[in-house]
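fyi for ur records
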Amino acid sequence: MVFPDRVVLDFRFRAIQLNRLNWRDFARRENPAASALMARMKIAPDDRARVKLECVRLLSTLRLNEAKMHLILGFVDTYLRLNDDEQKIYQTELEKLAPVEKEQIVEATMSWAERAEQKGLQKGLQQGLQQGMLTLVTKQIEHRFGLIDSQTRERLSELSSDQLETLGDALLDFSRPEDLAEWLQSP
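which gave:
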């Protein structure tokens, strides 16, 4: 905000693309934000279960009040949802931990799961996340290539949250509408 004789307000932000940061660089930082944001960083498909365990492990070592802990666990659970195979890997890795550390992690996650179940949050959060991602990706496509047809819009609405996230990243490399069509046709 500028007046003729002075600048009153000047924001300068440094943009950080979490999906380009390596989660390993943040795994041992005793910081609740690091624990949460690791869930959005660059993660190899084979590391997803390990990253979630590291997020929860780190969070369980911090002395946070219950509300903050549940907020961050909700973020991690929303953005790093594991499929059945990944959940098995998570449980296997959890079993390898020292008993005290394992107990802290189980206690934290059970408390979150109970609270989320009581409030019916998980399903609502997932649906809200999916709808928000769909809206964002649709707007990005329309901003870049113009209005999209109903067939493409319908195909986009069938994508999972993970697929929408992958598409959002892929859009950065698309230079023509046909790139989108090809991406949507690929398995």
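Residues 134 and 164 are 7 Å apart (CA to CA). thats all i got for now
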